[in-house]
Amino acid sequence: MPFALLRHAYLPHVLAATLCSSIPPVLAAEAPAAADPDNAAPSPTIALRAAQGRLAADAGDNDAFRQRVLALDALGASALAAEAMAQRPQLFADFERERIQGDALARAIGWGRVEPETPAARLAESQAALAALERMQRESPRATTWEATRLRVDALSALNHLQRHEAVVDGYQALLDDGIEVPAYILGTVGDSLLALRRPADAIPVLEAAVAHKPHDVNVRILLGYAFIETERFDRALPLMETLAASQAAWPRQAGAAAGYQNWDRYSADLNHALAHSYANDHARAEAMLQPLTGIGPANPGLQAAYGAVQSRRLRPSAALERYRMALTMTPGARDALAGQVSALSALDRIGEARSAVATLRQAHPEDPRLDRVERDLDRHRGVQATLSARRGRSRQRDGADPLISPFGSRDGGWALEVRSPLIDDRWRAGVFAHEDWADFIDGRVRHRAAGVGTWYRHDRLGAWATVGAAGGASSGATWTLGADWRFNDAWRTGVELARNAQDTSLQARRLGIDADSATLTASYVPSDTFALQGRLSRLRYDDGNTRDQLGVGAAQRLMTRPHLMVDGLLSVYASRSSRGDTVGYFNPERDASAHLGLRLDHITWRRYETAFQQRIELLAGPYWQRDAGTHWVPSLGYRHLWRRDGHELEYGVAWSRPVYDGLREQRVAFDIELRWGGAR
Q: Could you tell me the pTM of the whole model?
């Protein structure tokens, strides 16, 4: 989830560390109420001009000197006013001196947020302003209560810009503990720091108070929208963002003006409205909202980085990286693009470049609160990967059918373990694997097990792997696999694998001492997060001379997207043939085919940043045809849980189906569980 403008950890990806940069208003000296306009005090500009004229005539005119300092302060030139005041401090009352000094510090803190001349000086002015403020508190304690409070409040703004968010919240709490009514202008800054610390529930009342004080402050309302998003209150966040965008004219015009002026608040509102939909999982809508903006402002680095973040969530890392690099071409220090390209490069398996990108981000923005999360995600990707899975199933025949008909037997199960080393030279992994499969047939239990070692290579478009091991149980001997895949672009990927003593050999065949080798070709087309098409063509060559050719195609299309619910339509088609028909002693239809339609519902039941609990329901039904056995409808239903935490996943579920083998229907119930560690798949 984001904090401030684009704070994804997961969120990673972020447009600015802060949105709220409120600067305390300049407090002019109190003036007596005018009885009529003729007695009104002159404007600061007129007062300054008059004072300078008098000083030109008489440099020792103390009254003119005093009026010049007060006019400079009122015009916002507080640093000049403070510098001049130091020449004749005796002319000013304590409250005036402290106010002017406070105004100068406030202006310095505000200027610290302006884009610097060089990246190295990005935080220098804020650091200097904060040091001056702390020195003033230490060496010249304020005699005026309000000015003492004001220094404490202004410090929160400087600390926020320096990304010292814990200090901001501690300072705010100290003010409350002292019974001080915190000025409303700083509440947006405090809310921003609370979001940076991932405390959105605490940020909401603070930001609501800020909005109540300044209902037209676009930045604070955006921050409030993100606080709702980070507490999963999309029912409040999305209407807020939509209303905010609708309230801002693109080219507002002052009364009597010949033309309108650019409204950057409208840009901020439109941008964050789109991103809010992306955080609500509707990345397609976010893309449609941002795309025309990129045409209007192609040279806007923040916009390009935001569009890149949406492309990343649409499963297009190459497109995302292109946008991030466009942003960096225009602004080399753009923190959102620097952070975003790390995840894009990791997704593209360009790990060496990703490490360099992290180093660049660390050097350019060492204070960025995302930095630790970005580094942690990359370290997890480069670290140990492991997968542990287990399954159990039960098949029940009807009408006294022979249990040998079912390829699963009456009961079946198994487990598998694969552990891969941390990345070696950013491309290689070495590891071990082991698995066991078993099934109960009428004449007893059949087991097959294998264990061995392997090596895996992956860099950029190419992936390759090789494993070798020994098999035991119902069949024994050497087992090995050799495979490779190639990513053509963000959408297309294809792969091939050869296997000796393949794991997916029928246990019915192993029961008879028959092993099988396999060759498999896979292809996938995934142009976005809302559509996927995958195909698999394989040949199993059994030791008894039989060969089985199998073709499967599956597709998923998003039908509905809500913040916590996604509904996909599913389609799967399967066909196979064998060279020896069903005379081999194991289930081996000469020809068969199936087609299934269904729905998949994913409900995000609970989520807090990278930790989430998700429920899934899959319902499929369709005809299954087998030569000489006719056509039968086969339904299936699955229910699953998925837990995610810091890149690790635990998934388990139960499935029910009523398959048909050789024209005889069975009922099958199965349970499986899998733990994925370190981003393993």
A: 0.88
